[in-house]
Amino acid sequence: MTGTPRSLDQDTFNRLRRLYIIALGAIAISLIASQILIRKYLNDQENDSRLVNVAGRQRMLSQKLNKEVLLLSQSQSDEGSEALGDTIKTTLNRWENAHQLLQLGDESQDFIVDNSPEVTSMFEAIDPEFKQVTDATQNFLFLKSTNSEDSVAIATQLKIIEANANSFLIKMDEIVNQYDQEAKDKVSALQRVELIITLFTLLVLVAEFLIIFWPSAKAMKASIHELMDAEEKAIRMAKNADILSQSKEKSVRELQALSKAMDQILLFARITPEGYITHIGERFSRLYKAQKFNINAKISDLLSPLENEQLTIDRIIAENKKSGWEGEFKTTSQTGEEIWLDVSMIPFNSTEDKPELILICMDITKRKEYMHQVEQLTKESFEEKMHQQKVISRQIIENQENEQNRIAKDIHDGIGQMLTGLKYLLESVDSSDPEKAEVKIIKLKELTSNIIKGVRTATFNLTPPELKDYGIVPALTELTQELSKLTGKDIVLFNKSEFSQRLDSLVEINLYRITQEAINNAIKYAESSHIIVTVSHSQNILSIIVDDNGKGFDKSKLKAKPDEEGGMGLTFMRERVKYINGRLFINSSPNEGTKVTLNIPLT
């Protein structure tokens, strides 16, 4: 087998073509013949129906003529006899015309008669009766019109009419039946011919399939297999060919095909390795407003009027004219507008096998502007965050120092003085004087209780022992009770869902500090008399709500960021909430109180 597909033998192809033409001709002939036969049958059928109609009318006219003659023979009125005589003449005339029409036809009425020998012989047999009736009727009319008194002659004519009319009617029935039978025979013959033509057409179609289509299909199948084999060989040969050469030729063809589209869509240009323009796209020209630019000018002159930018472009082209280049550079239009281009420079050989460079560019000026804006915003945001973090850090340090000073002051002024007094009381106890010693011991007990209470208060403000030992709800219960005692305000905790689950220690201490800050804000700033702390939970969320009946505030005037003047309480709350992956909601209106909601995930 060669590398090209085998073709059908020319003689075989010509033979199949002749057979195909003969088969199609046979089918066409059968269709034409069937159409001719059907048309002829329809015409014959139409003519036969008219013959049967006229023959039937001839029977009717013979009966009508006989009846009218009898009526005239019995008429006593001259006027009635005259009218009947005219009617008989009309009927006789129609009868004679119909009799002639059935035998000879009438071309003026497109009434063609082609009687069979049987029908012709029947008309010859019926002709004597027809003549007898015609002559007798005419004689009868003559006798009646002359008012003849010869009754014998009239009776004789009536007998002739009656006898021959009956015989004519019987023979006319036979003629009508013969017409009907011949029409049926024609239908049967046509059905047989149609069946023969149908069978012939089917045989031609079967023969055409077996002789022409089936061998052609087999030959086509073999040709397709050979084509597929040839295609596989071509693919294998293509894979073994020089890949670089193939890709270069393909690139040239694709560039030629897409050149016009690239001119319309891309910033597209072709230049020589020295940087001179050989082709430039419409969008490129419109962007730099250089529709009438000299085609042999340097691309650097088109892209910028500035010498330093021109030198940069020429350097890039000179250094990368063989390997290609991708990158960005800034250009300046003839009107002084800065334009940033994302450039792909691709070396290729033109159809004249001359080396050229393709420039495909994108105008990224807007992107550069947006990037600059993003960088500026990022810088400003970073500086703002650094300033905010600096304020937070300073406040945290100040709060830590204040807290340490407060603790030191509480210990020095409270616990320290009480310990000094305890020391002096212990030293002044005189065991030799029991009464004075007992009074001093009572004072020692009272002073010791105060020391214990002071230590407990100091440690409570640092980390409540209930939080470490029992969890958030007992700690908050203790917090509300202690603050209620110290401030005289009605502060209560309501554990709505009976929450008793222990959480991570860092989560619990942050929950405690956030709630503590919210209660302290309600005490210090809200001027509230009632504060309700509600704890509730679902399967996934723990919620703590601090609700007061204070004076509230306008949320629009709430400081969004901390500064040197304050606003750190809310910032600390939000920082702590963010640390434990929770969410903080503050709802307040002037004179409507404040509601702080803290939600944290339990899973």
Helix-strand blueprint:
Blueprint: H1 10-74, H2 78-104, H3 117-145, H4 151-240, H5 243-265, E1 267-271, E2 277-280, H6 282-287, H7 299-303, H8 307-320, E3 325-332, E4 338-349, E5 355-363, H9 365-428, H10 434-462, H11 465-469, H12 472-487, E6 490-495, H13 505-524, E7 530-537, E8 541-548, H14 568-579, E9 583-588, E10 594-601
Parallel strand pairs: 6-7
Antiparallel strand pairs: 1-2, 1-5, 3-4, 4-5, 7-8, 8-10, 9-10
Helix pairs in contact: 1-2, 1-4, 2-3, 3-4, 9-10, 12-13, 13-14
Structural features, described:
The protein is of the alpha+beta class. The chain has four domains: 18-221, Four Helix Bundle (Hemerythrin (Met), subunit A); 263-365, 2-Layer Sandwich (Beta-Lactamase); 370-450; 467-601, Histidine kinase-like ATPase, C-terminal domain (Heat Shock Protein 90, 2-Layer Sandwich). The protein is 67% helix and 12% strand. The chain has 14 helices and ten strands. Strands 2-1-5-4-3 form a five-stranded antiparallel β-sheet, sandwiched between helices. β7 and β8 form a beta hairpin. α1 runs antiparallel to α4 (151-240), α2 (78-104) runs antiparallel to α3 (117-145) and α9 packs antiparallel against α10. The radius of gyration is 64 Å and the shape is elongated. Residues 1-8 and 562-566 have low confidence and may be disordered.
